Amino acid sequence: MRGRGDKVLRANAVSFSGIHSQAAFMNFARLRRFIQAMTRAVESQADEPALLAAGQPLLADLITHDDWLPEEFARAHPDKYQQYLLYCDPFERFSLVSFVWGPGQKTPVHDHTVWGMVGVMRGTERCEEYTQSGARLAKAGEHVVTPGSIDLVSPTLGDIHVVSNAEPARVSVSIHCYGANIGAVRRHVFAAETGAASEFVSGYSSRAMPNPWDRSLETA
Questions:
Q1: Would you put residue 175 in left (φ > 0), alpha (ψ -120 to 50) or beta?
Q2: In sequence order, which residues have a C-beta less than 8 Å from that of residue 193 and are 6 or more positions away?
Q3: How many whole angstroms separate alpha carbon 1 and alpha carbon 62?
Q4: Among residues 13, 14, 185, which one has the least CA distance to residue 83?
């Protein structure tokens, strides 16, 4: 699905940072517009509620049009979920990441320490929320997130959860926007039974990123 005025890549060759891949009609204009609009949002909105209110419709537009994410950044791993960096603001004010979940894959109990918007684009995800009281964790509930839906996380809204693929036989893909370079943030995983926290830095599953700035293959 393409909106009026979108520019579309020809089907012959698509450029990435350091890689080349065959792709048909990758609509990088859509990704580029999200980056531009989200940059304006972080520059103009000083408080978290206003920023999340501005960012949600931008992410909703991205996840309800499945014509822009290259296959290289939607590829599942047989043993663990994947976390692909799609873009990071030069000042690390926000990052955009695709999470790819094979059947049965899930995160440990973890936090983020920054705001985040999590939008499902393909498949279905299950979110199990936890609250923390002192050193103990308590499960607060769970829900499923379907295509087009967006979950919010932050230390002020609720920041500890487990995410898993709710599809028993297919891959799920979600697009996450965080208020930092999330792969470089020092955050925590928790033992569900005891609440014991361990620090971790997640990194990313690939050194490559899409290049929405190369317009040489776009048609008018």
A1: beta
A2: none
A3: 11
A4: 185
Give the phi and the psi of residue 40 in degrees, each rounded to 5. -60, -40
The reported pTM is 0.88
Contacts of 175 (CB under 8 A, 6+ apart): 59, 62, 63, 69, 86, 96, 97, 98, 99, 118, 119, 121
Residues of the chain with pLDDT under 50: 1-24
Tell me the C-alpha distance between 10 and 27, whole Å. 10
Segment 171-201, tens digit of pLDDT: 999 999 999 999 999 999 999 889 999 999 9
Structure tokens that stand for 51 in this block: 């920023």
- Provide the token pair at 191: 């033992």
CA distance 121 to 145: 10
